[in-house]
Design a protein that fits this description.
By secondary structure, this protein is of the alpha+beta class. It folds into two domains: about 170 residues, Ribosomal Protein S5, domain 2 (2-Layer Sandwich), CATH 3.30.230.10; about 140 residues, 2-Layer Sandwich (Alpha-Beta Plaits). It is built from nine helices and 14 strands. Strands 1, 4, 5, 6, 7, 8, 9 and 14 form an eight-stranded mixed β-sheet that branches. Helix 1 packs antiparallel against helix 3 and helix 2 crosses helix 3. The longest helix has 21 residues. The two termini are about 15 Å apart. The chain binds (3R)-3-hydroxy-3-methyl-5-(phosphonooxy)pentanoic acid. The site of (3R)-3-hydroxy-3-methyl-5-(phosphonooxy)pentanoic acid has 14 residues, from helix 2 and helix 5.
Length: about 325
Amino acid sequence: MKATAKARANIALVKYWGKLNTDLNIPAVGSISITLDKLWTETEVEFGKSISADTFFLNNEARKDQLDRVISCLDILRSHAKVSYAARVVSHNNFPTGAGLASSASGFAALTMAAARSLGLNFPPNKLSIIARQGSGSAARSIFGGFVEMHVGSKGDGSDSFAEPILSSDDWPLEVVVAITERKEKEVSSRIGMAKSELTSPYYGEWVKTSPIDLNSVREAIQAQDFEQLAEVAELNCLKMHAVAIASQPPLVYWNSATVACIHAVRELRRSGIPVFFTIDAGPQIKAVCTPGVSKNVEKVLRDIPGVLDTLVTGLGPGVEEI
Ligand code: PMV
């Protein structure tokens, strides 16, 4: 009873920050993301009578700190399959873990698919999305490729809180230049950060209230392939999320000086007519989203900024797959 799955990271153009229900991990706001082809997690899950306890290895290291979250996801699938076998989970990320590059998104999407398939569960994508959501909110989106929207849902039990594709990557093949400004894992995870913002940020209520406006506008921009509108609203939404985080107690400043320098560089490039905009998740890395013709140019500019350790260019990728 063994299966392997590969899932890609995604970055949010309209962010998820805050929860409606912590136990079921239902987000307080919808979100829209793009799935990135070259940043992925591969996970092998093996269930068996001979395995005495659940174990989790990430990049060849036992990660006891992450084991409870992995077990919660395995438990959901074990209860669907009506089995109680323990599992051995072995996972690899081809990019830095826990540094604001959405490793939990690709990680839980790959885990959900691999664990389901190894238990012989042939769930449709929206069901996988619901299960992945319970591991990590953003993982619900990595089940799908291209442009993806995550719904809050209205049922309260999480059964309609899943992601759905909006547009395929072939229809609008944007590219992303990722500028890595820090390789270490961040000090405050998204999960803890958003809980602090909910409780302490004076802007949290406005954030939740105005999120549907950004969602509608970004969805429309994607459907119309209107880059300028997408750029304006995605940058605004990103800065709003960080404003909420920065105003939390204690303050959550995920950026470093290279992050800020990259923000200015990307805005300057756009002012000079280059179709590019930035977004930043809960970490110091910058993701510059652009049309394919300009990605080399954008990479060249970002690579030369002091504090940028590395850059990579990726197109948009497919959803989770069994391999
Ligand atoms: O899925 P989590 O719990 O890692 O939270 C993701 C939060 C952000 O990356 C900051 C925003 C998002 O929508 O991905």
